[in-house]
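Issue 218. Parser rejects a valid record. Input:
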Amino acid sequence: MTFVKRYLSLAIIGTFTVIMAIMGFVGLPFSTVELLEKIAIAIILAVSLNMVVGFLGELSLGHAGFMCVGAYVGGKVAVLLSQSLGGTHIVTVILALVLGGSVAAGCGFIVGLPALRLRGDYLAIVTLAFGEIVKNIFENVQFFGGQTGLRSPQFIGKNRFIVFIIGFVLVLLTLFVIQNVVRSKHGRAITAIRDNEIAAKSMGINVTKYKLMGFVISAVFAGLAGALYSFTQSNIQAQTFDYNYSIEILVIVVLGGMTINGSIISAVLITFLNIFLQKNLGGSFAIAKDIIYAVVLILLVIYRNAPALKSFREKYNFQALWRKIFKRKHNPAKVKDDAARWDVVPTKIEMNEVLSTDVVIDKTGDNSADVGERGGNK
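Output the parser choked on:
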């Protein structure tokens, strides 16, 4: 059961990818392909940011900056290779992804250095500044297209569905790496730093190493998402990766409860909501899209944090449903092995009972005492 719970999300997404790949060969509408591409990118961004915000406990507002690095570097590499190879090939895609993720990892290392001494709002300001600096650099360097943006090669026609398949393969890679890191000794060290950094240092945990590890892993996958994004656009604009985009990714993570599975579900729902509102609210009603989007997010935040709804959330959620379906009711009388769980060990004395001792002093003065024991309530 533990193995199933650990890799359930991987199995579901893997099965979905195979089904969509088969349907892609038959033929999928372009709108569906575009939606799947955006969902894959959103999942990668949300899960990777969760590494820093959820598990490391640091507030980052520059995640779109890492994506920007991956998009421009990966897109430029793809343009140069496609010109030399005479078209867009799988080798072009792989090299673009690798180089985009690698350069983003280097930026993650640089941004992670201030995290060694800064926390909270101060670190948020640093990461926010990084995102804006990166955006302005790419916007003003002619090698990357300057103000007009970077022209990137696209998969056109029937080959377009390959992009979302690559995207979901990257989603599986992201989940596999981050889930295994979190469940390893390195992940336990990272969460220990989040809970109490001073206590983690006193236990011998290398805080410098694990903070940098968290930022670098997060940046790598954000760079991969950016390189993937470059294959879905004919022109990459730096303004796309502003601080609003970083905040949108952070909102997805927070609404997902800062868990991996929650980030996946939240990314899917919010991406679908954005596209649905964009397509159905146009013209004079376009401004209503942002209002509806904001209202939905406010309601979700209230639902997740309102104390009055705590009992409702605990009773009606996916974990409670999972326990109800797959777990049997426990019978303490049938316990063969206590497994160090005192709550299931059948005993004759209640756990709130204690043994009290009465001492009776002998009046004869021979310093002897009669000691009797009896059970009593504390």
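Fixed in the parser; the record now loads. The first strand starts at residue 150 and ends at 151.
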